[in-house]
Prior knowledge:
- It is a single chain.
- The protein has one domain: Rossmann fold (3-Layer(aba) Sandwich), CATH 3.40.50.170.
- Strands 3-2-1-4-5-6-7 form a seven-stranded mixed sheet, covered by helices on one side.
- It is an alpha/beta fold.
- It is globular.
- Helices cover about 35% and strands about 20% of the residues.
- It binds 5-O-phosphono-beta-D-ribofuranosylamine.
Amino acid sequence: MSRLRLAILISGRGSNMEQLLKAASEDNYPAEAVLVLSNKTNAEGLETARSHGVAAKAVPHKDYADRESFEHALDAALREHDVDIIALAGFMRVLTPWFVRRWEGRMLNIHPSLLPKYPGLETHKRAIEAGDEEAGCSVHWVSEGVDEGNVIAQARVPILADDTPQTLADRVLVEEHTLYPHALALACEQVKKKPSS
Ligand code: GRF
């Protein structure tokens, strides 16, 4: 079966994006990366994507009057590249129900907590302050509620006595880099079984 056409949406550094690009450069991976989009013109990840030979474009949300017109521009770029599946990787914009429904079952996200614990921001600080013994990351389908969609896969790490939010984030990020390519491959198998929209 042919490989799915993958787009990755970022806002910054793009270290997860880079791991997805590396995985998707292998012939036997179920997706090929065709596009990286950022809502920020200065996102570091745009250059990284280009250095991997993948088309990368900024669609600055600030250039649009409202969320929907911004998302129509994103959607147009995705359709132009005939995208089948979207991976959000540090994409820091909340998406409207319109966009989420349009890509339902074809869009996933990575979140740095063991969902359903700690949706939203400052996940590592909240896990430490709660006295949790472990933290981790989740890859999930994107649904209308922020960080609420069904979980595809998770990875866990211990929380150590002297952890700060940064040391914990660093330990979780190492796991994110392995988890996301694995979870995206699982997601592709599910998408391939569906009729195309
Ligand atoms: C990651 O921790 C991811 O889980 C969260 O934002 C961070 C993005 O990092 N959603 P990077 O841009 O992939 O390096």
